[in-house]
Amino acid sequence: MFPALREFVQMGKPVWGTCAGLIFLANKAIGQKTGGQYLVGGLDCTVHRNFFGSQIQSFEAELSVPELVSKEGGPETFCGIFIRAPAILEAGPEVQVLADYPVPSSRLLSSDSSIEDQTENAEKESKVIVAVRQGNILATAFHPELTADTRWHSYFVKMSNEIREEASSSSLVPAQVSSTSQYQQPRNDLPIYR
């Protein structure tokens, strides 16, 4: 399935990866299981698998989400549910950071053995990225679907509609629209198995 998923992402289709989905969408992953990790790619970032630890170390945290608030309204924070969660350690220039989470610098440094002086910054606080958008890709390290707050879902639907509108306005062939098209089922680009 990986070639088909890569093609889907490269075609500019809206994609949202949560937790493991974030890992799959990253261009680079560290902390991989033995034998490596297949990646779909498309998201210009380096993600650390299980950055926050094992299943027993799962947690909830209030995240500052200014972009979500500006688009969807509601409270200034969102309750992120992190289950054996990854974190984004580096993001490219085209990646829009939507939420981050504070961690002790010693935790961040211990995840990257290539950093030379780990003792100097051990007491400082750093942040890891836990939600991003890059073009057609939305990714969250936490699980919005486990809360009653539907703002991330609404954000993704609106993002999808924007992408669809951009694609249709850049098309060279005008779309044929019938008066009943608004009531028709949208065409599904994925195969349906019966």
Global outline: globular
**How helical, in percent, are the residues?**
10-25%
**Unreliable runs:** 113-119, 172-194
Architecture, CATH level 2? 3-Layer(aba) Sandwich
Keywords: Glutamine amidotransferase
Biased composition (Low complexity): 168-181
Active site: 19 (nucleophile), 143 (charge relay system), 145 (charge relay system)
Protein name: Glutaminase
Task: Please give the structural blueprint.
Elements: H1 2-10, E1 15-18, H2 20-25, E2 26-30, E3 43-48, E4 59-64, H3 66-72, E5 77-82, E6 87-91, E7 96-104, H4 105-110, E8 125-134, E9 137-140, H5 151-169
Parallel strand pairs: 1-9, 2-3
Antiparallel strand pairs: 3-6, 4-5, 7-8, 8-9
Helix pairs in contact: 3-5
Task: Describe this structure in a few short sentences.
The protein is an alpha/beta fold.
